[in-house]
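Supplementary Methods. Inverse-folding protocol.

Structures were first reduced to a discrete structure-token string of length 160. This string, shown here, constituted the complete conditioning input.
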């Protein structure tokens, strides 16, 4: 089931996210985080935005949230999405369910655009974004470095 995040979810969320930090280019973070840091991040997002989790049998299988796209006030109706799944539960439709709920909630809150930022290569993320109606809005060459490799980033946009 999909529900709103609780601070008590932080430990399970950290377990999901730290895999992506340690073993992938999906996030540009390099240092693992702890439960306390994740609680801080959850609180920060919830000040102005929203965060949801997908849970089965008391286990968080994925989470998604939207946050600030840019600092300037004129951007306040545009958000950046983040979605992460337990590495053992990818390809099962959970990401799509989370994203559809994120889109619905974003519309209901009066937001106008969602930006998905994708480290390349990530074909499954590109396919999901395109399936949900996002279009490729930009492409940036070698803007990040992780594991001693330069990484490109694609921006996908959904107008609500």
């Amino acid at each position: 089931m999909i529900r709103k995040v609780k601070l008590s979810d932080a430990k399970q969320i950290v377990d999901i996210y730290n895999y992506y930090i340690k073993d992938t280019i999906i996030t540009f973070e390099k240092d693992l985080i702890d439960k306390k840091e994740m609680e801080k991040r959850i609180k920060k997002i919830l000040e102005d935005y929203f965060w949801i989790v997908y849970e089965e049998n008391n286990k968080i299988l994925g989470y998604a949230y939207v946050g600030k796209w840019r600092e300037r006030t004129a951007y306040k109706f545009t958000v950046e999405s983040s979605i992460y799944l337990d590495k053992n539960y990818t390809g099962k439709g959970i990401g799509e369910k989370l994203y559809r709920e994120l889109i619905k909630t974003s519309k209901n809150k009066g937001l106008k655009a969602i930006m998905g930022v994708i480290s390349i290569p990530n074909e499954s993320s590109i396919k999901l974004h395109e399936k949900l109606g996002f279009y490729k809005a930009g492409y940036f060459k070698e803007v990040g470095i992780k594991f001693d490799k330069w990484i490109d980033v694609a921006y996908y946009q959904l107008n609500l």
